Amino acid sequence: MKDLTVNDMKLEAGTFLRTLSRRGIESLFGVTDGKAVGTYVEHEFHAHLESDYNYVTGSSARGIDFPTLGVDLKVTSSRQPQSSCPYRSAEQKVYGLGYHLMVFVYDKQDDTSTELAYLNFVNAVYVEDKRTADFQTTRGIMNILDNGANLDDIDAFLQERNLLLDDVGCRMLAERIVEDPPQQGYVTMSNAYQWRLAYTRTISIAGKVDGVDSLL
After folding, report:
1. Which residue in 49, 114, 125, 189 is a FRET match for 161, CA 20 to 30 A apart?
2. Contact criterion met (CB below 8 Å) for 75 and 104
3. How many Å apart are CA 174 and CA 90, to the nearest integer?
4. Is the four-CA dihedral 130, 132, 137, 139 of positive or negative sign?
5. In this structure, are residues 86 and 21 in contact, taking their beta carbons and an 8 Å threshold?
6. Residues 107, 200 within the same domain
7. Bridge partner list, 188
């Protein structure tokens, strides 16, 4: 077996999801818990990959699903495409999560005549780590930098964004931004000690911008 690469995983994701979309799933019939659906899909995707590839699987200690590739897998409903992830620092909202995201978006339907559930995967996107920052925060920073903002302007902007930083932390982050401006992010991130990530915009621009790929 060959070692799994990111490109392999992206190609296999499309094949896997198209196959799974046609499969009736008895164990998910009547299930409304999104976490249970996500766990099932993640398990099946790993089983699909493990038949042909060598790779290290993730764990709660490692934090993400594919630690050696720096990729975390998220499975979410199309009704409200979002998920959560651990909060590490406020800088993640400006510079990204520090790893790539692979997001599978499904529409679940139950067939009462057969008592089988069907997961129709309507979207699948791969977001490079540099694009996993918050859209509005990075857009605002880039706009004011384009208009000649200085350190004080950046500091004031960060204070207004309520990034769970004290005055010293805001100043330090502002200094970093002046020295190393962020790239535009495409994820919506809530301010909380566990990030709430929303993907509606990410899905809509997949395949249209660098660093956000459509897998279906």
Report:
1. 125
2. yes
3. 12
4. positive
5. no
6. yes
7. 198
Check whether residue 161 and residue 58 sit in a common domain: no
Same domain for 68 and 35? yes
Judge if 165 and 80 occupy the same domain.
Answer: no
* Same domain as 64, residue 129: yes
State whether 40 and 139 are in the same domain. Answer: no
- Segments forming the whole domain that contains residue 155: 135-179
Tokens of 126: 């791969």
Q: In the 3-class helix/strand/coil scheme, how is 186-216 assigned residue by residue?
A: CEEECCCCEEEEECHHHHHHCCCECCEEECC
Question: For residue 166, which amino acid is it?
Answer: D
Outline where DSSP puts E strands in the chain.
2-3, 53-54, 71-77, 82-86, 100-111, 116-127, 188-189, 194-198, 212-214
> pLDDT tens for residues 20-40?
999 999 999 999 999 999 999
Under a CB-based contact definition with an 8 Å cutoff, are residues 116 and 24 in contact?
Answer: yes
The reported pLDDT for the residue numbered 62 is 55
Q: How many domains does the chain have?
A: 2
Q: Are residues 170 and 191 in the same domain?
A: no
pTM value?
Answer: 0.92
